[in-house]
Amino acid sequence: xxxxxxLLLGQDGIVNGAVYGLMALALVLVFSVTRVIFIPQGExxxxxxxxxxxxxxxxxxxxxxxxxALAVIVLVVEAWRWKRGATVDWRSxxxxxxxxxxxxAVLILGFKPTSLAMQSLATLVLIAPLGPLLYRVAxxxxxxxxxxxxxxxxVALHGVLVGLGLFFFGAEGSRTSAFSEARFDLxxxxxxxxxxxxxxxxxxxxxxxxxxxxxxxxxxxxxxxxINRVGARLSGIPTELSGDLSFALAAVIGAISGxxxxxxxTVYYDTGFLIGLKGFVAAIVxxxxxxxxxxxxxxxxxxxxxxxxxxxSAYKEVLVFTxxxxxxLWRSLNSHHVEDEE
Length: 342
Prior knowledge:
Low-confidence stretches: none
Shape: globular
Strand order of the largest sheet: 1-2
Number of helices: 15
């Protein structure tokens, strides 16, 4: 391996690490607020990329019908809860179940976007409400269940969404148009504009998330919920809405990741699962609690994957997932046992 090959592999590792970093941030966010290890996070990536491909092919993405079906189910559930005397926040329910689906339907069926910017916006509006709707259907009724039970639900939901992805989009993969067709030569190393877009958008999102959690009132409420759910509830913070918001942010991050990688690699209905798993490895490096450590772990995963694909391409996935073993071993030796109820 010479220096040029090393730099090329390093470039690929940084680009891949940027995407894994977004996955890790979403997983840490959801787990911190709701205690859910969200296995289906990668499905937002695949749904976002394939929905964008459908729009560019002049078709209405089938995820629109999934969104409308989930919206109807959630409305029925909320009406049933309200009839039984439970308190229902109809403003938030109508926002996720009526406003967002209506906007998505108007953008996709009414305007039929043709520009790259409008297609991206329509995709984000389409995927974003899937997060809170899935939370309300699958997780909110089990909000007080153990982490293990929530993990089992996540695995089941992942299976359902992968099956729906195959039904909606078929087994064929798709690519989308690049956001930048530019080509650069940096010290003899070719760099394409889409790679710079991936890294740039990731940096902007990371900075925006740190500002959001550090400076905004809503972000501080999410942090309070993550630190002490009961205390946050006693302080007047609506923890159920915190779950909605955390899942919405996770869906947006997943959709943006799908839009970023679709011009670089062919995306299939099950592509998101492997991407989500590598983001999970990065999140484990951060202990499912630290955003900076999760980002560092994502960069490590990306670089390890890139260089192992050169030295031992047949075992690159094995090497990446083996990284989780020493991390878990070190954490088990340096932390005391905590019961789930604590």
